[in-house]
Amino acid sequence: MKVRIDRERCQGHNRCVDMCPGVFDTDELGYAVALAGVVPPEHESDARDAADSCPERAITLDEDGG
């Protein structure tokens, strides 16, 4: 599974960081960033929950990894 954050949409609520720190972190301005482009299998469920909880729908998950 691949993850991407739309920097134009992210408003810095950082729910994703709280829910899935193994996949998301914050940048120097306090906005969410993906630690890597690929979500480790053990974090996939939390990454889905984090994407679903994003108020701006800034997180895109590609289940096929392509």
Which descriptors would you attach to this protein?
globular; 23% helix; two-stranded antiparallel ribbon; 66 residues; alpha+beta; 4 strands; Alpha-Beta Plaits
Largest sheet: 2 strands, antiparallel
Gap between N and C termini? 8 Å
Principal-axis shape? globular
Average pLDDT: 95
Number of strands: 4
Q: Measured on Cα atoms, how large is the radius of gyration? A: 10 Å
Spans of at least 5 consecutive residues with low confidence: none
Question: Secondary-structure element order, as H and E?
Answer: EHEEHE
Structural class: alpha+beta
Strand order of the largest sheet: 1-4
Description:
This protein has 66 residues and is α+β, with helices and mostly antiparallel strands. It has one domain (2-62): Alpha-Beta Plaits (2-Layer Sandwich). The chain has two helices and four strands; from the N terminus they run βαββαβ. A two-stranded antiparallel ribbon has the order 1-4. The chain is globular, with a radius of gyration of 10 Å. The mean pLDDT is 95.
Please summarize what this structure is.
With 66 residues, the protein is of the alpha+beta class.
Topology of helices and strands:
Elements: E1 2-5, H1 15-19, E2 24-26, E3 32-34, H2 44-53, E4 59-62
Antiparallel strand pairs: 1-4, 2-3
